[in-house]
Design a protein that fits this description.
By secondary structure, the protein is mostly helical.
Length: 443
């Protein structure tokens, strides 16, 4: 960011990536994927490979154009202003719509740890308190957000890594038979598992977004991206193997805290408490990382005159404070609407997961084949081939995940993108009028 020292190194960038990826979606995934048996483990491995291909693609884009905004910036350079706006619009909505889900995971872990806190009003209060606490941290500055990301990420990895690694010695191999419990086709199972696993990989591009605050971004962002994805993928694979091998399948299917259940079997109540504490720390860390991105993406779009100018205003501490506050207000409204709704958290969670995955996968699809165009637009076409096998795999991976999201999330996501068109038209008209007035004044 102009006027501020670059404050994010490889440790902070890796922490932001891992912190954003290893969030609430991962804790519940062993239970959600249990009906598919060993196919769930295979899905983590395959999706991990696809995620690494996407990570390599973003690493290449970061070397070609280390600009603030990540997927938005690359899309705009490669395809133009309007596609760039749609990506920024959808990406921004997916972030503030996801914050309540992460914050609710924090509230749930707090209530499990302290039963006296049970109650709907308390849950809403804890949810909002977690969101706004993290907003305050981000308003303090990007450096503070990066330090907080490092503390929360590396703290939470200890208990989850303990379950994933030590848990391998507690496995009951009978829990892995039969191989495919539902006898579903590999394609159908893959389509059903794709959004569940992809939701856990969302955030793999996180280090590319605050590129303006990254030290030596051409080297730091690619290294942090590959390192962060690799750490998360290994944790997902071994964590799922351990939990599925420790907790009987019938119990796992109905579990609301599969990692806590596994830790309780291994180490008793103390193990379950340790995992609950890790969920609390992890939820706050994920909120922190996504709040950072929530301000950076619309700020980059506002600086390019494709987003309302309020999102581009930077405070004395070098952060897009107005944009963060506007976004957090929308997330707060979403929490309050869910609190008075009658459908319950499960329906709310499922819809948000589908929407978040869908709106994130579209930028992935755009960016997966953008390197050649970005290289041409930045005068670096001789440095990279037009397209590689890795980028083709990344595109197929994104397209298949979009198919797996299902009709309803795709429909709602498309509607949200269409609703952004009037905002784009208004902003472009406003920019055009301003340019005409400037030209007239000079004449």
């Amino acid at each position: 960011m102009a006027g501020t020292a670059k404050s994010l190194g490889i440790g902070a960038c890796t922490a932001i990536i891992v912190g954003n990826m290893v969030g609430s979606g991962f804790y519940l995934s062993p239970a959600a994927m249990a009906p598919y048996g060993n196919l769930a483990i295979l899905a983590w491995i395959v999706m991990g490979g696809g995620a690494i291909c996407l990570g390599l693609t973003f690493a290449k884009l970061a070397r070609l154009a280390p600009e603030t905004g990540g997927p938005y910036a690359y899309t705009r350079i490669a395809y133009g202003d309007f596609p760039g706006f749609l990506i920024a619009w959808g990406y921004w909505i997916s972030i503030w719509a996801s914050l309540p889900v992460i914050a609710i995971a924090f509230a749930g872990a707090m209530m499990d740890l302290f039963p006296a806190l049970q109650g709907r009003i308390v849950a809403v209060t804890l949810t909002l308190a977690a969101m706004w606490f993290v907003v305050f941290i981000n308003l303090r500055g990007v450096k503070e957000a990066g330090i907080f990301a490092e503390i929360t990420t590396y703290s939470k990895l200890i208990p989850f890594a303990a379950v994933a690694l030590v848990g391998l010695f507690f496995i009951d191999t009978s829990n892995f038979t039969p191989f495919d419990r539902d006898n579903t086709s590999l394609f159908s199972a893959g389509a059903a598992l794709a959004p569940l696993t992809m939701f856990a990989f969302l955030g793999l591009e996180s280090a590319t977004v605050p590129a303006g605050d990254v030290r030596d971004p051409e080297r730091t962002i690619p290294r942090a991206t590959i390192l962060g994805i690799s750490v998360a993928a290994l944790l997902y694979v071994f964590g799922t193997i351990a939990v599925m091998g420790i907790v009987p399948q019938q119990e796992l299917v109905n579990s609301t805290a599969p990692f806590s259940d596994a830790a309780r079997i291994m180490w008793g109540p103390i193990g379950a408490i340790a995992i609950s504490l890790a969920v609390i720390v992890s939820s706050i860390g994920a909120l922190n990382g996504w709040t950072l991105l929530m301000g950076q993406v619309p700020m980059a779009a506002a600086h390019d005159s494709v987003f309302p100018p309020a999102f581009g205003k930077v405070s004395e501490r070098g952060v897009p404070a107005t944009g963060i506050l506007i976004s957090a207000t929308f997330a707060t409204i979403l929490v309050l609407v869910e609190a008075v709704g009658s459908e319950g958290f499960t329906a709310f969670y499922s819809l948000v997961v589908g929407l978040s995955t869908m709106t994130a996968v579209i930028p992935y699809a755009f960016c997966s084949l953008a390197a050649g165009l970005v290289a041409a637009r930045t005068g670096k076409s001789k440095q990279v081939p037009p397209v590689t096998v890795v980028e083709i795999i990344a595109f197929v991976f994104a397209a298949f995940t979009l198919y797996g999201c299902g009709a309803e999330p795709v429909l709602y996501g498309l509607m949200l993108l269409v609703l952004g068109i009037p905002v784009y038209v208004w902003q472009r008209r406003r920019t055009s009028d301003s340019e005409q007035q400037t030209s007239s004044a000079k004449a």
